Amino acid sequence: MIRIELDEASLGATRIAISPLWDAFCSLHLALPHRTPSWPYEEWAGRAREVLRDDERTRPLRLLTHGPHGFPDFLLPRPAGASSVDAELDIVRATPADVVRAGVREHYAEMEDHPFVRPYVDDPEAACATLAEAYAAYWEGALEQHWPTMRRLVEDEVLVRARTFATEGVDALFAGLESRASWKPPVLELTKHIEADYRAGERRLLLIPLVFAEGCRLYSTDDPEVLAVSFQARGAAALRDRSAGPGAACGDRLGLLLGRGRASVLRQLGGPLTTAGLADRLGLAPSTVSEHLSVLADAGVVTRHRVGRSVYYQLTDTGRSLLALLAGEDVLRAVS
What we know:
- The chain is an alpha/beta fold.
- The chain has helices at 8-12, 20-30, 42-54, 62-66, 85-93, 97-107, 118-122, 124-143, 147-168, 170-175, 253-258, 260-268, 275-282, 286-298, 317-327, and strands spanning 2-5, 15-16, 181-184, 187-190, 196-199, 204-210, 219-220, 226-232, 302-307, 310-315.
- α5 (85-93) runs antiparallel to α8 and α12 (260-268) crosses α14 (286-298).
- Keywords: DNA-binding, Transcription, Transcription regulation.
- Residues 242-336 form the HTH arsR-type domain.
């Protein structure tokens, strides 16, 4: 269990950021041969394993999956406001040599002669450049085609969490974070296979939603300014094979009443989502989803509100009650 004590200053400065590189790192762990990914990731994992096996450029990534539990931040820098993987890889390449060697001394003191570690001691600049190229090769083969969908998922998550934080406060933000995190003020607990306690001190908290958080949960403690923690974004089913997956249950009373399309739209609205976000999750055309939403809005089970250029839909109390009564789903206290 990881316990992070947060004071008022760090809580007040809490931010939410997007990081394709953090998602790539977690997806690496989900693609390991011994892992059995859940349904939305199964087909993707098969392709990712082929990339790691067949593309020799990805070899340096093995340090990230076969090393100790902890690792220096230069291998996975904190997001710096950039939402492109190329910008994050430029940060990896630009890591100062003294920062690299200090990270190796702290995290790999007993492994400095390991063939995956030694390059970072002998020639940090070249090693970081090689690592960035390994990330890039893996991204191109395993994740690039999925990034437009992934980006919409994490951007939706940022907007939902930011709205919750602004309107309901930090307790509501953490309460709806995810199952592997619990908030017992002033301590945020993360379920991990190691025991550690940290105090944020003067650092601000940075939350990072990931589509591939099933692979691993990340937290960063080396940075003197930021304490970063990842969490699972909703909507990972958008990655699934459209021709596979569980079929509709025979006893689907909600589907019988509304039709399967509208029932599936209603089930996805645990928090505010756009038409495009729902279309990604359900594998339906945006025009089809828009038609379903229009009918559901007219029936008073969903409501819509505009944020900038985007229109977000969410369940009304009537919609939550309908799901609870006909689908047996406990959404009466869903995040809104």
